């Protein structure tokens, strides 16, 4: 994961769109706030959970911690996901790690998608950057719809390379050498400092 920098890419308007996260429900937000801000952190770091032979178990010596709502801090579905062997539920990403996939549903129940240092999931723009979308590309629809658009998309650099090489092949201009670099830059956005655009559409 790359540290977010508002001026590393640019748009003609100087505005950065879609840089806000999906709003978690109160229980999940409370859980996320308890996940340590360290590499590899996830629900296994919460009180009452022990790991034996790579599988999670309840710690019989620790009373189960409850949220303000009365629901458990460590939900049953996290303990039983992939028969207790998964480290994904409520997992934090880290700066030197690769994001395994960009999902359409930004909920931390069974995915590693928490920001390394902030108590939130990745924003729409952060997901879009992972998919190679330039900052000048503005998404439309509700927050959920925009996450879905990015998650279902083919990564832009992949689509660009495929389109370019197919175009060469159709014109009979391709050879047996592998394509390692494209002969042009993308996107063609102008270099300007970015201002983050607020969007209160949390639907």
Automatic annotation (TrEMBL):
<keyword id="KW-0949">S-adenosyl-L-methionine</keyword>
<dbReference type="GO" id="GO:0032259">
    <property type="term" value="P:methylation"/>
</dbReference>
<dbReference type="Pfam" id="PF00145">
    <property type="entry name" value="DNA_methylase"/>
</dbReference>
<dbReference type="GO" id="GO:0044027">
    <property type="term" value="P:negative regulation of gene expression via chromosomal CpG island methylation"/>
</dbReference>
<dbReference type="InterPro" id="IPR029063">
    <property type="entry name" value="SAM-dependent_MTases_sf"/>
</dbReference>
<protein>
    <recommendedName>
        <fullName>DNA (cytosine-5-)-methyltransferase</fullName>
        <ecNumber>2.1.1.37</ecNumber>
    </recommendedName>
</protein>
<keyword id="KW-0489">Methyltransferase</keyword>
<dbReference type="InterPro" id="IPR001525">
    <property type="entry name" value="C5_MeTfrase"/>
</dbReference>
<dbReference type="GO" id="GO:0003677">
    <property type="term" value="F:DNA binding"/>
</dbReference>
<dbReference type="InterPro" id="IPR050390">
    <property type="entry name" value="C5-Methyltransferase"/>
</dbReference>
<dbReference type="GO" id="GO:0003886">
    <property type="term" value="F:DNA (cytosine-5-)-methyltransferase activity"/>
</dbReference>
<keyword id="KW-0808">Transferase</keyword>
<dbReference type="GO" id="GO:0005634">
    <property type="term" value="C:nucleus"/>
</dbReference>
């Amino acid at each position: 994961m790359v540290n977010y920098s508002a001026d590393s890419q640019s748009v003609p308007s100087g505005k950065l769109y879609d840089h806000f996260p999906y709003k978690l429900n109160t229980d999940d937000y409370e859980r996320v706030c308890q996940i340590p801000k360290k590499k590899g952190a996830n629900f296994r770091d919460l009180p009452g959970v022990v790991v034996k032979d790579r599988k999670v178990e309840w710690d019989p010596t620790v009373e189960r911690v409850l949220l303000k709502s009365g629901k458990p801090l460590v939900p049953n579905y996290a303990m039983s996901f992939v028969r207790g062997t998964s480290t994904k539920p409520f997992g934090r990403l880290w700066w030197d790690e690769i994001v395994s996939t960009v999902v359409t549903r930004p909920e931390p129940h069974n995915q590693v998608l928490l920001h390394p240092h902030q108590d939130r999931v990745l924003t729409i723009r952060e997901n879009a950057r992972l998919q190679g979308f330039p900052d000048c590309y503005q998404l439309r629809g509700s927050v959920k719809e925009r996450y879905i658009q990015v998650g279902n998309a083919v990564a832009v650099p992949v689509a660009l390379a495929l389109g370019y090489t197919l175009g060469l092949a159709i014109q009979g201009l391709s050879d047996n050498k592998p394509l390692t670099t494209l002969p042009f830059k993308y996107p063609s956005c102008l270099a300007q400092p970015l201002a983050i655009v607020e969007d209160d559409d949390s639907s």
